[in-house]
Amino acid sequence: MLINNSGEKIRIKITALLTVICVALTGCGPFTDYSVADVSTGDIGIGNMSDDALVSVGFSQLGSESTWRSANTESVKAALSTDNGFFLIFDNARQMQEKQFKAVRSFISQRVDYIVICPVIQEGWDVVLAEAKDAGIPVILLDRNISVNDDSMYTSFIGEDMYAEGASAGKWLEEHFANQGRSNDEINIVVIEGTSGSSAQEGRAQGFGAIAARNMNWNMVASVNGEFTQAKGKETMARLLSEFEDIDVIVCQNDDMAFGAIEALNEAGVKTGGIGEPVLISFDGTKKALELVKEGVINVDVECNPNSGELLAQIINDLEAGNAVDKAYYMEEKVFTKENVDEYIEDRNY
Ligand code: GYE
């Protein structure tokens, strides 16, 4: 762990505190139980790794860039609780693949039972996954996918079908213009994309692109990286507004970027969603976005389901029991528009 002097001090203090609490409450041994947990950054292990009854899981989360991501982290933490029989070691990579490699190597050296990774980008995983494989530790990919030559490098993938999400957005748009009698109009589309090279960005771009390709009148005038964050979404939208006068459709590859884009649009006095206004498309299906669908500011929001923790726990339990598991599991996802959104707003947990 690379930390400065003050970080080191905080880590020692927190580790000491955990040890005191641990010894006082349970009489358990020294703080090696927590040694893999990066307490200097708030990433802590939960439970007691030396407890053989618990299944230990190292979880490399890619970051905390969005509302969706926080919900996903919460879902995993809730499902892999000590009450459910797990010892969870959590690491937040803050969007850095290098930091994910470090976390995985740390999990390997701690000899955890399973490694779970939400991979920030698709490429570059072969070496570190080979190390996990050599150590005999099963790897489960969560949320985003990776591109490896040999898919025996991981045991299972639980995530979302990003291509299908992009294609759903495109099909909705086709129908929307057909209903308006605008199927042959020239349509200018700008896209604010998520993290370049992530399966979420590539899948959604390809899925939407496939529908765009069969509509010769759709002009993909710009696709810009907004990094899945609200701040970048706003900055990118402001730039697009200054560069292009005639924008018919704005596609934001997640809700947080859409929130930022809406701020920039408001500041420029541009309304979205209504007749004669740009169409706004988003992904994730957060509660706040569904409210904007209801208000008519976002036309369509394609759901991306972050609540994969329970399925993850079930798959680990299956593996523990020696049962065969599938290579890929896809979360169920809907498409939200003004017509159906009322049914879903209240129960949204993210
Ligand atoms: O859409 C976005 C998040 O990988 C599906 O990542 C996920 C995406 C999600 O930051 O909000």
Describe the protein's architecture and organization.
By secondary structure, this protein is α/β, with parallel strands linked by helices. The chain folds into two domains: 179 residues, Rossmann fold (3-Layer(aba) Sandwich); 143 residues, 3-Layer(aba) Sandwich (Rossmann fold), CATH 3.40.50. The protein is 41% helix and 18% strand. The chain is built from eleven helices and 13 strands. The strands form two sheets. Strands 1-3-2-4-5-6-12 form a seven-stranded mixed sheet, with helices on both faces. A six-stranded mixed sheet has the order 8-7-9-10-11-13, with helices on both faces. Strand 10, helix 9 and strand 11 form a beta-alpha-beta unit. The radius of gyration is 22 Å and the shape is elongated. The two termini are 32 Å apart. 45% of the residues are buried. The N terminus is likely disordered. It binds beta-D-fucofuranose (GYE). The site of beta-D-fucofuranose (GYE) has 13 residues, from helix 2 and strand 10.
